[in-house]
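Reading is simple: each integer encodes one residue's backbone shape. An example follows:

___
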Amino acid sequence: MVFVSAASAWEAGIKQALGRLTLPAPFAVGVDASGFQRLPIAFEHAAEAAALPPHHGDPFDRMLVAQARLEGLTLVSHDRLLAAYDVPILWT
């Protein structure tokens, strides 16, 4: 099962508003059409993200790390800075 964080939807929305990303359909439509599961942000995720060491400054990436840690998931990324965190990563 593949999960997509609400943090990714939030980040995509910000990039769209800034003109840095164009999607053919709303982010949620693409996620649902792919058969992926939506992963909401919980209070526990926020607390975990806030408690992470400052290896990475991007709040969206820190949230993804926190969610992967708490939910026992593997993070998919190409950002090598995330290797400093104790979370399984599938490198792209």
The two ends are 18 Å apart (CA to CA). The mean pLDDT is 97.
